[in-house]
Design the sequence.
């Protein structure tokens, strides 16, 4: 295996967290300058807000935010507290097709972001307490 493939695999393996939360994908499908796309989603993973705006005829900005806030579950034998949020911003290029070509849109975005995920579990077995924090 070449050195570049090993480097790519190493980078991808270091880009994950211990708890994965899926989210809605932001697909702007922008076709002209000044176009604004906004969406709000509520799901079992929490609330998400997505937006994109076309600055020029070929350049667009994108922003995403998601949060489940502080989800807490308590019962007689355990307690689970989960926190999760992410925020992203990106820059993209798009090119709408000719009007007689079924309005195919070609776009590519580079996105950078920050997120936080944690899960605290407190379990009781008899009189013993076990704590796990991820």
Sequence:
């Amino acid at each position: 295996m070449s050195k570049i493939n090993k480097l790519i695999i190493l980078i991808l393996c270091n880009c994950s967290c211990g708890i994965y939360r899926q989210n809605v994908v932001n697909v702007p499908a922008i076709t002209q300058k000044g176009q604004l796309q906004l969406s709000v989603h509520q799901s079992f993973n929490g609330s998400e807000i997505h937006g994109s705006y076309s600055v020029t005829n070929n350049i667009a900005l994108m922003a995403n935010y998601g949060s489940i806030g502080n989800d807490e579950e308590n019962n007689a034998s355990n307690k689970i507290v989960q926190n999760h949020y992410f925020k992203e911003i990106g820059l993209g290029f798009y090119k709408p097709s000719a009007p007689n070509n079924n309005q195919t849109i070609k776009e590519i975005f580079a996105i950078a972001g920050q997120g936080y995920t944690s899960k605290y579990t407190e379990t009781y077995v008899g009189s013993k307490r076990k704590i796990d924090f991820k």
